[in-house]
Amino acid sequence: MALAIRDVREHDLDAVLALNNEAGTGILATDRARLRHLYEIAHYFRVAEQEGRIVGFLIAMRQEADYNSPNFRWFQAHYESFVYIDRIVIEQTMRGHGLGRIFYCDVQSYAEVRVPLLTCEVFLEPRNDQTVLFHGTMGFQEVGQQTMGQDGPKVSLLARELPSFPFVRERYLEQDGLPDVAWLAERQRPADLRGVSA
Fold first, then answer.
1. Where, by residue number, does the polypeptide cross the bilayer (predicted)?
2. How far apart are CA 61 and CA 44, in angstroms?
3. Which of 55, 133, 139, 182 is most deeply packed, by most CB within 10 A?
4. Cα angle value 145/146/151 (rounded, 5°)
């Protein structure tokens, strides 16, 4: 019953796609091509695996990502530096056991040594008080609202300041950079490896 949080692998994508599209109204359905694009551009893309089965995932990216989501673009227009949580999905049988909090703590540990803000959105239509409350207890504050497209749902745009970042910036990022240790390494994205010969 051990649970592992690890970087996604290419062979996980079919399971991730199925999990995404079974998640219900709180997550936008996607297709193989769009998920492949997320796989290539995401700075953070981790899965939860239990007994060889993918039971959750979280996808996030930094401000320079080539991503046309209207919510991501809103944050690009308003903030210089951030990590944006695009989506988190937890399998139905695993909900309510703290896996969402584990993912949020993990993505925060990625973000807080790189940027001052962690951002995301939650749907306000249909109303989901559980999701809104979850983000509030994780320290997020509403910084805006918008409607996705002409007929899309209304969303609340959320941000959380990362209090560790000023220390990391002054001590490391403005000096010699982050230490060369495994837990601080960037994800090796397929987009990063294009044009690199062995």
1. none
2. 6
3. 55
4. 145
Residue 168 has which token pair? 């990391």
- The pLDDT, as a whole number, for residue 1 is 66
Tell me the three state secondary structure of residue 159.
Answer: strand
Stretches where the chain sits below pLDDT 50 are 196-198
pTM of the model: 0.93
Nearest Cα residue to 115 out of 155, 71, 65: 65
Q: b/e for 9-36, b at 16 or more Cβ within 10 A?
A: eeebbebbbebbeebeeeebebeeeebe
pLDDT at 198: 44
Specify burial of residue 83 (Cβ count, 10 A radius: 0-12, 13-18, 19+).
buried
Task: Say whether 42 sits in a helix, a strand or coil.
Answer: coil
Q: How many CB atoms lie within 10 A of CB 125?
A: 12
Q: CA dist 117 to 16, 37, 46, 114, 156, Å?
A: 26, 24, 19, 9, 16
Bridge partners (DSSP) listed for residue 59: 45, 87
Q: Helix 32-41 and helix 13-21: axis angle, to 10°?
A: 120
DSSP state of 145: E
CA distance 133 to 135: 5
The structure tokens 């979280």 sit at: 58
Q: Do residues 190 and 40 touch, judged by C-beta distance below 8 A? A: yes
